[in-house]
Amino acid sequence: MRARTAVIPAAGMGTRFLPATKAVPKELLPILDQPALQLIIDEAAGAGIDHVVVVTSHAKPAIEAYFEPAPEVIAKLRSTGRDALADSLDRVGRDVRISFAYQDEARGLGHAVGCAREAVGDEPFAVLLPDELMGDSSLLAQMIDICERTSGSVVGLKRVPRDDVSAYGVIDPSGPIDSEGVVGVRTMVEKPKVSDAPSDLIIIGRYVLTPDVFDRIEQVQPGAGGEIQLTDALRMQAASGPFHGVLRDIRRYDTGNPLGWLTAVVELALDDPKIGPAFRDWLQERR
Ligand code: UTP
Fold first, then answer.
1. I need a surface site. Which of 49, 70, 233, 238 has the fewest CB within 10 A?
2. Is the CB of 54 under 6 A from ligand 1?
3. Residues paired with 132 in a beta bridge
4. Can you tell me the distance from the alpha carbon of 281 to that of 246, in angstroms, rounded to the nearest whole number?
5. Rounded to an integer, what is the distance from CA 78 to the centroid of its chain?
6. Tell me: the pLDDT tens digits for 171-189?
7. For the residues 12-27, what does the mean pLDDT come to?
8. 213-222 pLDDT, tens per residue?
9. CA pair distance 15, 131, nearest whole angstrom
10. How far is the CA of 50 from the centre of ligand 1 (A)?
11. Crossing angle of helices 138-150/36-46, nearest 10°?
12. In the chain, what are the domains?
């Protein structure tokens, strides 16, 4: 079966962006004129996803508000001839079906994914962390293909300098990486010491998971702070069936902290056909 649903966990507290995230959820911070969440939905749609489940919290009403229809604003834009802008507003939440699941207490990524169980049903699904932006949909599309072909879960990978592995989930590959960037995963460890790390391949925020992961999540023992780690459930899956990682040369931005967010915004602004040239001139004059 092919994954057609994507889960976007967006119920976290966004502490690294406080006080901005007191009123504006991290997932709605703008990347130029688009909320990060919209870019993630566009990536999913580009990989063939037609249903997105946003896991949110009742403390973040702005997330749902973003998907509310805005007929008055659209009518006003049309009456003043701003049709392109009206069209872009009109398509919000319409090119894929959007549903919501709730996690009112941030109890970790595993728990957040578990909250989407009913909305996903008994089929493979993608998980996209909204604080990582990808240059295009190709990684996710390839991961969906591999999940369908192997009937096992798939994680996105990135190679990092050995000294940096301790901040991430790291895979233990079961063999070499093939010409498509695909590698078998024997197991994985969360935030290992550099000396204990089984490789320099870290798990990034893209997953395509078989639905048995929901039972595994329920078996995970909560760790520090009552958090339920997704990696613990994935380790159980890798121990009992096919499990793969995909390493692909794709642009990726970590927008989960202020410096990473700013880097993404600057790079995308430089590439933007409308504001790029003026922005580049301004940057050069400033130096
Ligand atoms: P992060 O850990 O980067 O987000 O989780 P956070 O917890 O909101 O941010 P900080 O660390 O406090 O600054 C990655 C994604 O997973 C979601 C977050 O909303 C974010 O989009 N998440 C995380 C949940 O939905 N629930 C959780 O319990 C944890």
1. 70
2. no
3. 254
4. 38
5. 33
6. 999 999 999 999 999 999 9
7. 96
8. 999 999 999 9
9. 13
10. 24
11. 50
12. 5-256 (3.90.550.10), 261-287 (no CATH)
